[in-house]
Structures are given as structure tokens and as C-alpha cells.
């Protein structure tokens, strides 16, 4: 590069963008596109890809056309560039969000040569009506951002992205020159990279690939048991830090956000079902740190650039390692702490596979392969970083992980795998390098499947040779993975998943050397995601874990109830007793963590209960779950939090009902669920305005004496002429709140 060009690039960087020096490969990339070469950039998120086309666009003659998939991102970028310049026409976007007048203005500026960067959605570029326009002005180059959208093997395939090349050709033809193309993406496996280059016709592009290693992130995969509780516990232990919790379903998002709120965490849900305004509010709240934790479907995070996200939790394993990498990548952008915790259960994989059913065969096959890679990553007991980076085509020495993954931090016992790896390679050769890992393992295990029959695998000399001691499928899958990450085996890129022995592998067969192998993790005990593991106090049939203790507790409560002259349900609800038979609280403090047990109740009635549990624990040698106890949400509906908050504010009950579009009867029902689950609702303010104090006292008196909380029985006793059902229900809420909770 000439010294003057170098100088002017530096100058533009400073003058226009305000940065002192280029980051990573930026300068080389910019020089490549300015030299008219097709250029392919693979750089992790946050690496500074935008600048790689923005800067050359500004210093070039003509207008650069930038294809970008997201309308919101386009607008952000255009605003940012306009912010650097005092000429609004310098950057524009064309997409479906513009009206006719906007479009006319954009086209006018472009044709007048004012515009350096024109952002377009792929469907805008390929639209028949627009093509003429794109041939009417001087195009400096095409930039294809988020280029992985081209590949069906990427994590975000968009068919319109595959139709870009013909347009580029048309424009090039008109200009009688090859307009250079720069493609950029943050994730590309070797397979995706090849797809992109082929589709864009840029196989001989200059390639700039940065390392994907995020050296400060801690990767942790945990079995998915008690996941909601584990998440809440984790967040509580990290109170005050910013974090994201990803869930696959909206329902889970709302449920967990609510559970976090109830546990005193500043959290909010975020998903595509919310309107744009609400979502923007949540995003701002997160950036401004009014909110610490966002519980989101994957829709969250695309455009946000918060450097100090300290943890990313996956409630469900993502459907591909690309997604996993992207989503975990939002942690620790500033190079500081970044913990990535994923809860894994094979059941979730089965569920994700079910989603694929009904899709076109090709898409289904691709989806399955991506899932297999995910399984393999989750279950490996090798360095996570090494396996993840290998997936992106990068060699990594696990010694450099610095124990920043669960497997390096808590290594499993490894055994010499030299001979077994050799056997695995020989098996791949024996099936003529035409099969996937699973099929080759079947050969070694002597399992005859329909594929095996078709190819007469049972006639192979080494059929069944892998059956030995405790070597099972799981063991062999670890062996194959070791061979893969050591590059002795390669997966055929063209025919995804077919194993081939590399040159290095052939050399290994001639002269085997020591390679250690650890058995994969076995997560089969994990429960999967459908469990309702926030103990739902209103739910029936959850049952007590410790039946004996539960029975003892019930007896004890009856005893207390006689002494206190209160019905048993007013002492401790059955759901509370059930929870005690799981949590084994043995101090007053611990007892208050049980749902439905407040400080007052714990001190008033808790002594004998605690003594009883303690004795039971000691006599039966019970190991108590020492984890922090998590408060549960009365019910999954968002109405409840609203009601609790507004009753606190002494809002008229009719108004609360109205603003939530509930009938008064529905509101009563919701309030009943709330108090039955142990949360107080102080509705004295409302009752005092609407009901005689004497009348109130009479009902309280009744409930105090009664052995049942039935409204019917109460009305019968009190006289249906004197009391309405509504009144009695309200009084029961008051009674339960004052005496029972
Ligand atoms: P990517 O598209 O690769 O995810 P961006 O283009 O959004 O990354 O850039 C990420 C951040 O890095 C932005 O805040 C950007 O302003 C900043 N950045 C880019 N280049 C430089 C540079 N040379 N020096 C300092 N900061 C930079
Ligand atoms: Mg970008
Ligand atoms: Zn590691």
C-alpha cells in the first residue's frame, strides 16, 4: 500500500470516526476492497466489521451498496454515520419501512452523487422494479453484511440472500467493470464459508479470518435439573450484575422473568410478542441499568452493544453452535468477566428435532446435523473451547483455555486412547469413508442397522471389534471426537458429516502416539424443560417428596391449630407443608423461605415444626438441599404481580379489575389464588369503605372458628340475606392475609 493511501486511511479513521488506530485486520481489509479485490471477512461480533465497509465507502468514488438483513440495524448505522458528518445525504437506507416520499428523496440524493452509503434490504435489491435504479448510478462496491444468511447451513438462512449475485452481475455489466464485493459475517463454519463464497461467486476472494476465541468467557454446561430454581439461585448470587437469560419459548420467558421479579431481581421479559415500544423500553432499561436481567427469546441482543454483560444463561440449549456462540458472545464484550451457563438435557434435543418435522427434507437434514454438533459439544468432556473453535475451523490448544471451561476446571479422568483411536480410523477406512460417525460406531459396536445391512457392514472384519469391557456408544463417540479435534479425522464439507481420514490421520496409523480420551458426560438423568420446577403452591398433585415427614407435619399442624383455635389451613397451607417436606427447613429463617410462610407465622407457629423436621432429618440421615430457597410466583399470569402492586398502592379494586379487563369475580379469584399461596393482600382500605366494621368482625369471627374455608358453608352460617358472596370472599381474603399469612 502506498504511504499516502495509508496516511489518508488513518486520517479518515481519525477525522470521520474519531478512532486513533485500526482494530485487528481492519486496515488490511479496507485496503483489499479499495484495491478492487473481492474480500471475505470473518470476524467475531464486536470486532468492528462495519468500519470495514463504511470507511472505504466514504473515501471511494460513487455509492457503496450495503446489503443488511435488519431494518433496525440499518437505521442505527445510518444515524451513526450521519452523526459523523454534517451532510444527511451521505447515508441512506431503502427498505419496506419507507413511504413513497422518503424513497423519492433517497433516490434523488443517490443520483445526485451525494450518497456514499446506501443500505438496502436484500428483498429491496432484488425487487424487479428497483433493478433499473441500481444501474443508474456509480456503484463503488457491494458489501454483504451478515453474509451467513446466504447459507442454509448458517443459523439465520434467508432465501433472498441467495439471489444477490445476478443483481451484482447486472450492475457490473452496465458499468463495464467487475464491481468488487465484500462479504462479512461473525460466524462461519468451513461449510458456511464455502457456501457463501460459491453463491457470491467469490471463491478467490482475499480472506481475512480473525480468531473466534473469546478468551475471557467461561463456558459451563450443566445438567438440566431444577433449572428454574438453579437460574434464580445463580442470578441472586450475582445480584447487581447485568445478565441475559435465554429461553426458547415466550411462555418460559414470562415465567422466569416473573419469578426473578418476585425474588427481588430487577428483571424484565423480552420477546417478539411484545410491541416495539415495550421492547425498546426494556432494551433501554437494560442499557441504562434500571434493569439487571433480561429474560429473552433469541430475538434479544441483535442490535445491542452492552459491553459489561456478566452472564448469559441458556435455559434451553440453542439449536446450533452458531447460535450458542452468538448468544454467549454477548457476555464480557469489554474483556471482563463473562460466564456462560447452559442447562442441557437430551430431551430438549428431541424437542428441537420435533420442531424440524414437517419441514422440507433438506432443511430437516441440515437442522439435524446442526443439532448433532450441539449434542456433541454439550456431552464432550474435552475442553469446550477447543471443541467450539474446532467447529469454526480453528485449531486451539487446550492448554490455552486457562481453565475457563467446566471441563478444564473439573477434568474427568482420562485414559490412553491410542489404540482405540487407531481402531476408529481403521473403521472409517473400512467403510470406505462413506459414513457418518453414528454408522461407524455401529460397526465397532456390532450393531446392525438398516444402513449397516444395505452396506453389508456385518461382513467387515472389524465389525463388533469395539465391544470390550465397559466401552459403549458414549465411549466411542468420545474417541471419534478426539480424533476429529486432533484433525486425524475430518468431516467432509460437501457431504456434511461423512468421515474421512486426514493425512495426519494416516501418519498416525503408521506411527500411533499417545492421545488421552475421557468418556463423555452422561446427562440422561436431566429432566428436560417441561418440568414445572418452580414449586407452584397452588398446583395440585405435586405431592410431598418425603411422605413420612409430610404426614408428621400435618399432625403437628392439627395440634397447633387446636391450641391456636385457628383452622389448620390458616396455620400452614398444605402446599407449604409439601414444600417443607422437600426443603427441610430447620431454622426460623429457613422456614420463612417456604412459600406461604411469612416472618410472623414462622415465629408464631414455627418452633415445633422446626424441631420436628430437625429430628426427622437427623434420625433418617437426610441430606438437605442446601441451596438457596427460591420464592415462587403464585401463578404464571402477569396479572398477579399487577394486582399485588396495585393493592399495595391502595387502588380501588374495581379500577384494578377494569384496567386488567377482569370481571370483579375474576379479580376475586386471582386475589384468592394469591393469598392461598401465601402472599398477603392488605385490602382493609377497600373493605372499610365498602363494608360495615361490625359486619366485618362477624365474618372474621366466623372464619376463626370454622374448620373449613368454604364460602358456601360461611354463607349458610352467616345468613345469605345479610352477606353477599362477594363480601364473604373479600373477608376470607382479609382473614387469610391477616391471620394465616
Ligand atoms: P461487528 O459488526 O463486527 O459486530 P461493529 O462494526 O458493530 O462490530 O463494531 C463494534 C464496536 O467497535 C463499535 O462500537 C465500533 O464503534 C467499535 N470500533 C470499530 N472499529 C474501531 C476502531 N478502529 N477503534 C475503536 N473502536 C472501534
Ligand atoms: Mg455488524
Ligand atoms: Zn477448556
Can you characterise this structure?
The chain has 741 residues and is of the alpha/beta class. The protein has five domains: 3-209, P-loop containing nucleotide triphosphate hydrolases (Rossmann fold), CATH 3.40.50; 217-409, P-loop containing nucleotide triphosphate hydrolases (Rossmann fold); 415-517, Winged helix-like DNA-binding domain superfamily/Winged helix DNA-binding domain (Arc Repressor Mutant, subunit A, Orthogonal Bundle), CATH 1.10.10; 547-627, DNA polymerase, domain 1, CATH 1.10.150.80; 638-740, Arc Repressor Mutant, subunit A (Orthogonal Bundle), CATH 1.10.10. It is 49% helix and 10% strand. The radius of gyration is 32 Å and the shape is globular. The termini are far apart. It binds adenosine-5'-diphosphate, magnesium ion (MG) and zinc ion (ZN). Magnesium ion binds next to loops. Zinc ion binds at residues 383-385, 398, 401, 405, 407-408.
Amino acid at each position: 500500500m502506498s504511504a499516502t493511501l495509508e496516511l489518508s486511511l488513518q486520517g479518515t479513521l481519525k477525522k470521520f470516526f474519531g478512532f486513533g488506530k485500526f482494530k485487528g485486520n481492519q486496515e488490511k481489509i479496507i485496503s483489499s476492497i479499495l484495491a478492487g479485490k473481492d474480500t471475505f471477512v470473518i470476524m467475531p461480533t464486536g470486532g468492528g466489521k462495519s468500519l470495514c465497509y463504511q470507511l472505504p465507502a466514504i473515501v471511494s468514488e460513487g455509492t457503496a451498496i450495503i446489503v443488511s438483513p435488519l431494518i433496525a440495524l440499518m437505521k442505527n448505522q445510518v444515524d451513526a454515520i450521519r452523526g459523523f458528518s454534517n451532510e444527511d445525504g451521505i447515508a441512506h437506507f431503502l427498505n419496506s419501512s419507507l413511504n413513497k416520499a422518503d424513497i423519492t428523496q433517497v433516490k434523488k440524493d443517490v443520483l445526485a452523487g451525494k450518497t456514499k452509503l446506501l443500505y438496502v434490504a436484500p428483498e429491496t435489491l432484488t425487487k424487479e422494479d428497483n433493478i433499473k435504479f441500481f444501474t443508474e448510478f456509480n456503484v463503488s462496491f457491494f458489501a454483504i453484511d451478515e453474509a451467513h444468511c446466504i447459507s442454509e447451513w448458517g443459523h439465520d438462512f434467508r432465501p433472498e440472500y441467495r439471489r444477490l449475485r445476478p443483481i451484482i452481475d447486472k450492475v457490473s455489466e452496465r458499468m463495464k467493470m467487475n464491481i468488487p464485493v465484500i462479504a462479512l459475517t461473525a460466524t462461519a463454519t468451513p461449510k458456511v464459508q464455502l457456501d457463501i463464497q460459491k453463491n457470491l461467486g467469490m471463491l478467490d476472494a482475499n480472506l481475512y479470518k480473525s480468531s473466534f476465541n473469546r478468551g475471557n468467557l467461561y463456558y459451563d454446561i450443566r445438567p438440566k435439573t431444577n433449572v428454574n430454581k438453579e437460574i434464580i439461585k445463580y442470578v441472586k448470587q450475582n445480584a447487581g450484575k447485568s445478565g441475559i437469560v435465554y429461553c426458547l419459548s415466550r411462555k418460559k420467558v414470562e415465567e422466569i422473568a416473573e419469578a426473578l421479579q418476585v425474588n427481588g431481581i430487577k428483571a424484565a421479559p423480552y420477546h417478539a410478542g411484545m410491541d416495539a415500544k415495550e421492547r425498546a423500553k426494556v432494551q433501554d432499561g437494560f442499557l441504562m441499568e434500571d434493569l439487571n436481567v433480561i429474560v429473552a427469546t433469541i430475538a434479544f441482543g441483535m442490535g445491542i452493544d452492552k459491553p459489561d454483560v456478566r452472564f448469559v444463561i441458556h435455559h434451553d440449549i440453542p439449536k446450533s453452535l452458531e447460535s450458542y456462540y452468538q448468544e454467549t458472545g454477548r457476555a464480557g464484550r469489554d474483556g471482563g468477566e463473562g460466564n456462560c451457563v447452559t442447562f442441557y438435557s437430551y430431551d430438549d434435543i428431541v424437542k428441537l428435532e420435533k420442531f424440524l418435522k414437517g419441514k422440507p427434507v433438506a432443511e430437516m437434514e441440515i437442522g439435524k446435523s446442526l443439532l448433532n454438533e450441539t449434542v456433541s459439544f454439550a456431552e464432550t468432556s474435552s475442553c469446550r473451547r477447543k471443541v467450539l473453535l474446532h467447529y469454526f475451523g480453528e485449531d486451539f490448544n487446550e492448554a490455552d483455555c486457562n481453565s475457563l471451561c467446566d471441563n478444564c476446571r473439573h477434568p474427568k479422568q482420562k485414559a490412553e486412547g491410542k489404540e482405540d483411536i487407531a481402531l476408529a480410523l481403521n473403521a472409517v477406512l473400512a467403510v470406505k469413508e462413506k459414513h457418518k460417525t453414528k454408522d461407524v460406531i455401529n460397526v465397532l459396536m456390532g450393531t446392525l442397522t438398516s444402513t449397516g445391512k444395505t452396506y453389508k457392514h456385518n461382513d467387515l472384519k472389524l465389525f463388533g471389534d469395539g465391544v470390550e469391557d465397559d466401552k459403549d456408544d458414549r465411549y466411542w463417540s468420545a474417541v471419534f471426537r478426539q480424533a476429529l479435534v486432533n484433525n486425524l479425522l475430518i468431516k467432509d464439507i460437501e457431504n456434511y458429516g461423512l468421515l474421512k481420514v486426514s493425512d495426519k490421520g494416516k501418519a498416525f496409523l503408521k506411527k500411533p502416539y499417545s492421545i488421552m480420551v475421557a468418556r463423555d458426560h452422561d446427562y440422561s438423568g436431566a429432566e428436560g424443560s417441561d418440568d414445572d420446577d418452580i414449586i407452584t403452591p397452588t398446583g395440585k398433585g405435586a405431592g410431598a417428596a418425603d411422605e413420612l415427614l409430610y404426614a408428621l407435619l400435618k399432625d403437628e399442624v392439627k395440634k397447633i391449630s387446636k391450641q391456636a383455635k385457628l383452622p389448620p389451613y390458616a396455620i400452614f397451607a398444605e402446599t407449604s407443608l409439601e414444600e417443607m417436606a422437600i426443603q427441610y427447613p430447620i431454622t426460623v429463617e429457613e422456614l420463612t423461605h417456604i412459600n406461604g410462610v411469612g416472618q410472623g407465622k414462622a415465629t408464631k407457629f414455627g418452633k415445633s415444626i422446626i424441631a420436628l423436621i430437625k429430628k426427622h432429618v437427623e434420625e433418617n440421615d437426610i441430606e438437605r438441599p442446601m441451596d438457596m430457597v427460591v420464592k415462587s410466583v403464585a401463578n404464571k399470569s402477569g396479572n398477579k404481580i399487577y394486582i399485588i402492586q396495585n393493592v399495595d398502592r391502595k387502588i380501588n379494586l374495581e379500577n384494578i379489575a377494569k384496567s386488567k379487563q377482569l370481571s370483579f369475580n375474576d379479580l376475586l379469584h386471582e386475589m384468592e389464588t394469591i393469598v392461598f399461596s401465601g402472599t398477603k393482600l392488605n385490602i382493609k382500605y377497600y373493605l372499610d369503605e365498602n363494608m360495615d366494621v361490625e359486619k366485618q368482625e362477624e365474618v372474621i369471627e366466623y372464619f376463626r372458628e370454622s374448620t373449613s374455608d368454604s364460602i358456601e358453608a360461611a354463607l349458610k352460617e352467616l345468613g345469605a340475606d345479610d352477606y353477599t358472596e362477594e363480601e364473604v370472599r373479600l373477608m376470607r381474603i382479609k382473614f387469610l392475609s391477616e391471620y394465616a399469612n
